[in-house]
Amino acid sequence: YDTDNLHENAYTETMLISDAFNKMLGRLKILDDSRQEFVSNVSHELKTPLTSMKVLADSLLAQEGAPAELYQEFMEDIAAEIERENKIINDLLSLVKLDKTSADLNIKSENINDLLELILKRLRPIAVQHNIEVVFESFRPVIAEVDEVKLTLAISNLVENAIKYNHEEGWVHVSLNADYKYFYIKVADSGIGIPEDAVEHIFERFYRVDKSHSREIGGTGLGLAIAKNAILMHRGIVKVHSKEGEGTTFTVRVPLTYIA
Ligand code: ADP
């Protein structure tokens, strides 16, 4: 035997195993950190509307014989905070559902043209309120294997954002195309755009470019995290191209056939 060599091999192997072990520990640590951060973010986000409600209620109670108009005004603010709390909880539930394994996917052959038309029909009333024109362009009829509910959730979030982060009298352009392997959905807007250094963060949970502005228009910072998860579950990808002050385009690419 070449004992030196054997020794060396055993040594290399031990190094490899301990390397792999350390890498795994590192990954677990990252997972644990991000879980802790998520929980602390959730608590913070859920507490904010509660704190506002408490302040509003306390200040009403402190004013003896407050006029009915003041009650009315404060109750409207409280109702708005309740609605916000509700939206955060609903978004969180959507996200948690999507975090489960893809065994929960309900894949069926769907007409993607119809699916998009339906999404736009639901969201047009919001766009009309802000004089925003929503246009749909289909380059071909597309039938694909998708979970209709989850894909709808993803694309609705993108279109909602395109409307929310737009200017009065702006436009939203949704298009559908396909090749032999994938279908492509583009959601382009003429909106405020995303600052260059923020683009890499927008899919993170609770991330918002402008917290106060986003809060004003009812954002939770979870919409894009939900959209990305739903698209990844379909083995798809989502990309973003944006220019501040000019607009944003999200491109979604999903396989026509679901790959388990
Ligand atoms: P929110 O509930 O705040 O809309 P999202 O996760 O959907 O949360 O989006 C995260 C952030 O990314 C938003 O707060 C906004 O700052 C930015 N953003 C998303 N979509 C667009 C868009 N189409 N145009 C400009 N900014 C956008």
Write a compact overview of the structure shown:
The chain is of the alpha+beta class and 260 residues long. 55% of the residues lie in helices and 18% in strands.
Describe it:
Its EC number is 2.7.13.3. Residues 41-258 form the Histidine kinase domain. It catalyses: ATP + protein L-histidine = ADP + protein N-phospho-L-histidine. Keywords: Kinase, Membrane, Phosphoprotein, Transferase, Transmembrane, Transmembrane helix, Two-component regulatory system. It is found in: Membrane. The chain is an alpha+beta fold. 55% of the residues lie in helices and 18% in strands. It is built from 6 helices and 7 strands; from the N terminus they run H-H-E-H-E-E-H-E-E-H-H-E-E. The strands form 2 sheets. It has a 5-stranded mixed beta sheet with strand order 2-4-5-7-6, covered by helices on one side. It has a two-stranded antiparallel sheet with strand order 1-3. A hairpin with a 3-residue loop joins strand 4 (171-178) and strand 5. Helix 2 (68-99) runs parallel beside helix 6 (223-233). The protein is globular and about 100 Å long. The relative contact order is 0.11. The model has no long low-confidence stretch (mean pLDDT 90). The structure holds adenosine-5'-diphosphate (ADP). Adenosine-5'-diphosphate is lined by residues 157, 161-162, 165, 189, 191-194, 202, 207-210, 214, 219-225, 248.
